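Researcher: First entry.
Model:
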Amino acid sequence: MRLFGWWRGKNRNGGRPVLDLWHQRWRTAAASPAVAVVSELKAELDALQLPEEEIEIEREMLDGLDQLAHLHDALGRNGLPIVETGHRVVGADTCHFSAPSSMPDDPSQPSGRLIFTGVRAIFAGGGRTVTLPWHAVAEIVQQDRDLLLVKHDRETFHRFRCNVYADAMCAGLLAKRLAKKGKE
């Protein structure tokens, strides 16, 4: 019964309303990342005094929020980050993001790297490369460890699964900036 409850999205936190409330506050903080809120959420999580093995995901979520908040601040001060990479798919483009990821909707579920340049998103892995120019991206959705890039036809999309929340959250923020810049 618990399995089906999880599948429907109920009882996700083992029936703990306090964790549901914490998740709600985390989602609110992720929508407007601020470094100060990370400390508050960490203190709230610590105050629950749950065993560490029961809050591993929440710790990872906090780390992701912390990295997102720092990236958000850095973008305001310094603009887009520049990531050194020797990956051949980048070519002469400037790289702004690179992280290990997979494509869970592909039948072979290839693992590789998700790379963002100023002009395109690239997935290199599984013996092939998927390239999506930013001007062709209509919508960007980040949820948990997944990043969804939806094309303008609203029928074609690419879902990338990052290994950790931090990579997915930072990828979501950068993708939104790059897609907006690609439309200018």
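Researcher: Second entry.
Model:
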Amino acid sequence: MNLKMVNVCDEEVLGKELKEGELVVNISKDYFLGFRVGEEKALQLVKEADIVNLVGNRIVELVLREGLAHPDAVRKIQGVSFLMIYRFIHR
């Protein structure tokens, strides 16, 4: 079984370090910077993936508007939205 993982982050948070108490999250260019895509392509990638990591208010809101995740699954750190999606039924 081959799983497809997609990581998408808003450009404005790329390279930032976010802190909440003891928690420190680095939005690493090494991890997230692959290629730039528009909203339509980002949604296509999210829909096709089995594991999705999203960082940023714009991409998370877009995915929520499309009904691809539940708002209760969103975590905010320093006002930045994080969302992970795991699909357990392989297509």
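Model: Note on the second entry: The chain has a mean pLDDT of 92.
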